[in-house]
Fold this sequence. Notes:
With 167 residues, chain A is α/β, with parallel strands linked by helices. In chain A, 33% of the residues lie in helices and 16% in strands. Chain A contains 5 helices and 5 strands, in the order αβαβαβααββ. A 5-stranded mixed beta sheet of chain A has the order 2-1-3-4-5, with helices on one face. The longest helix of chain A is centred in the last third of the chain and has 14 residues, at 128-141. At the A-B interface, helix 1, helix 2, strand 2, helix 3 and helix 4 of A face helix 1, helix 2, strand 2, helix 3 and helix 4 of B. Chains A, B: This is Carbonic anhydrase. Chains A, B: Zn(2+) binds at residues 40, 42, 92, 95. Chains A, B: Reversible hydration of carbon dioxide. Chains A, B: Keywords: Lyase, Metal-binding, Zinc.
Amino acid sequence: MSFVRSVIPEFEAANQKYAASFTKGNLPLPPGRKVAIVACMDARLDPAKVLGLEEGDAHVIRNAGGRTVDGLRSLVISQQLLRTREIVIIHHTDCGMLTFTDTEIKSKIRNELSENADHIAFLPFHDLRQSVLDDIEIIKKSPLVLDVPITGYIYDVKTGKLEKVQA
Amino acid sequence: MSFVRSVIPEFEAANQKYAASFTKGNLPLPPGRKVAIVACMDARLDPAKVLGLEEGDAHVIRNAGGRTVDGLRSLVISQQLLRTREIVIIHHTDCGMLTFTDTEIKSKIRNELSENADHIAFLPFHDLRQSVLDDIEIIKKSPLVLDVPITGYIYDVKTGKLEKVQA
Lengths: 167, 167
């Protein structure tokens, strides 16, 4: 398999510690602050810390780039079944999605894994600000998403600050 | 629009506070602990707190149910471009995905939004343990995902504890 040391023993020790002082066992299923966040999976971005979220507050949907088209299934479930009524999008500086093209990753997969990934749209982007505007637009245009307030941000991984993206 | 009070002023105030004491401005792009987490978007589950993650540690992919098939694009990018070499899956008790069927949500959308969502697989499940096993299997079988250690957990929203799911 791999010579990298597994994170599992550390994760399980951390979880024991978390559970030992756990006091949030009676929270309801629907998010208390009625908001769904769509954010990049990037390791440096912790949406709960960045936005001051507590357990029970918000749905947090994350994927490579924080792309809303990839989060559509989750957003519809969030709104239709769990009654969120606001959406916040967070992309960030120094994003991996700025470093490759769809063609490049497909070539890499063909060369290194001998597999064809032509059926996947990897959704990279070359303009960070535009990527946020595009992702707001995708939600606004989707007939499956309710007409709710949507706010888009760029998170700066160097400063910890959010910058609002205005059209 | 909506009479619900927006979360934005509170989110921006929380972010100012976070940024004011921010010390993590020099982290590299690839996750330091070389792991990708796939977890449910549920508001009560904070993967960073549950697993003891710091900024920079891990990719966190989240969607309704923590379904790996929906996270495949992100997992491939995580492994191919940012060199993660372990996967952890977290589903949880009292999950919204246990409360509906694909047919039911499609009917709801047809009735309430007058829209057809037949092109979306909403991926609900009726057996929590089996959903974790299924999601491990999907990754193991995908030729686009490297053969890396995969661990699946059920998070108990009442206790804060992770339970490992063994096949």
